[in-house]
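[job 4471] stage=fold_predict status=RUNNING
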Amino acid sequence: MTPTTDEQELRHFREAMKALGCGNEVRWVLEEKNRLQRDDAYFSEVLARRTHGEPLAYIFGHWQFRSFEMKVRPGVLIPRPETEELVDVVLARMKAKENTFRKWHIVDAGAGSGCLGLALHRESCEKFHFDTELTLIEASPEAAEILEENVREIFQADVKIFQGSWMEWVPREKIQLLVSNPPYISGIPEDRADSDVESFEPREALYPKDLARYPDASGPYRELIKIADLCVEKGGIAAFELGAAQETWIADYVAGSYPLWKGQILRDMAGKNRFWIMERLA
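[job 4471] inference complete, writing structure tokens
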């Protein structure tokens, strides 16, 4: 039996969360409390952790991403709504190519929790009946451990995990789709992550390791575009989530250095230039 909730305790919790700017989270906390069958002390536990800025996803240990409950904890980036939008962008492009490819090898580079690759894998199979293979690449041992848990829980099989740098990964044959949400925050002061994000989420998933060399955070994209050029077959797709520093250079960079590719920047629902998607022409 689920413990009852005292209305006065709930009111106090609601007011305290509102004062923190987290009033919209109360419903989720109440749902989690009921799921765990916890008493009202759960409100105090959550409030204490949120007061110190800890993300709700880490407090719960899971987070919703499209139709999935993804396991998350410190060491892996929390899935974002913008990445859900990237799934829609890529699915639409895959659907447009159903006469080109019926079998897709999807590679998610820097997979983190696995949310992007797993969603594309499942939804392309369910919606379009594609024959789909998925490889998830993750360098961080902490993130790779969580990634493996999500793969076991969501798919149990049919997914390959490569633990290591995406530059170390070597495919057996050409692939049809490369996707990534790479570290994209630049060294520009106005382009820093929020303080709570920096305090709790893994820095290596936010800031590129080669920021000293590429202060515009272009390093990961240079590597990913090179991998796409080597691995994606004619007609295939590469799609990446962008940060504020990438929109100013990526289109010119690809047009000038990779003439076999045609790409475009797409906006997210907030009107920001958020996604880069490109197709191999030859």
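[job 4471] summary: The mean pLDDT is 95.
[job 4471] exit 0
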